[in-house]
Amino acid sequence: MLSPLLDEVAGAVTNPSKDVAAVLKGAGSAVHLGRNWPGRAIYVLFAPGSKTPTMVLKVDLFERHKKRLRAEYRNLTLVSSRPSLHESVPAPVALVTSGSKLILAQTGMAGKPLTTVLRRRLRHGTRATAGDFGHFTTWLRQFHAASIPAPPEPLDQDLANDRLARMLPGEGKQWASLLQRAQGSGREYSGLLIPRLWCHGDLGPSNCLMSDRGLSVIDWEGGPTTSNPLADLTLFLNYYSRVMPLSVVRNAQPEKAFEHAFTEDTWLARTIWSTFVAELKAHGLPTEAAHYLMLTTLADMAAGTAGTAHSNLPGFRQAYQRRLGAYARYLIQRRLL
User: Fold this and answer.
1) Structural domain boundaries, residue 297
2) 143 and 101: one domain?
3) Fewer Cβ in 10 A, N or C end of the chain?
4) Helices (DSSP H) in 147-266: which residue ranges?
5) pLDDT band, residue 117 (cuts 50/70/90)
């Protein structure tokens, strides 16, 4: 299976590096990672003697998924061309049609997925997690600095509050006091300029590779899009809390992990909150608006308007509607808005 794919890619590559040329000739080793869905296969190829992947092949059979590979090829061409990102994102090698297959070849990246790092870590606490978040936010700021920004978008209080009212789950009566306070916050922050920057769209720990060089980011099928950067941040912080092997969340529903990390008085919640507030400062947004901006970001994600890669999936939107409800109850109980 692999040799014909390599022959097809080799025919499309000009001036390959030494290691790429070696794996295209079948030297070294390969790992078949299986498939994300029917018709998809992923191969990771290593040059002889190398522990770092030299190249990754993604193969799709069905047209509805091939468009994702075409998008990733375009996206990688764009982001890898930025000097500040060149070492932390894959570079496209080739996009080749072979019979009914579409093959995307891209350079491999050093490091282990952050999900693996978390599961193997012996001790979890503020220092280790703050270190992870530091690597992540350093990369995120480089990503934003390299982006092609759109003009910032003034906060539309009517639109934000209407979306919040529509997305809060259950009976509207239970949210009356919250919505009233949100309207007050909306008036206070109406016209606040929300940045519009590049967003990855699926920035979970499984797509973040940790190595001695820092953090690298893979899986660019859904981005970059230009959107509110708080969505990428919130997505990452939520996914991070779900994959931590803490006893309190190990066998819990995702909503319990969210509550532990966002609404309870825990070291993880405090670390997540300080990271969120620090990113508001980095974007020039007022920290006193933090609870309102978290609430409206969750509402955007529940509505599918946040520019995330899976916003078209009903299950994704419903999950964030439940998290929006959990965060809203927390604000009501603590009188924080």
Assistant:
1) 113-334
2) no
3) N
4) 157-167, 176-189, 229-243, 254-262
5) very high
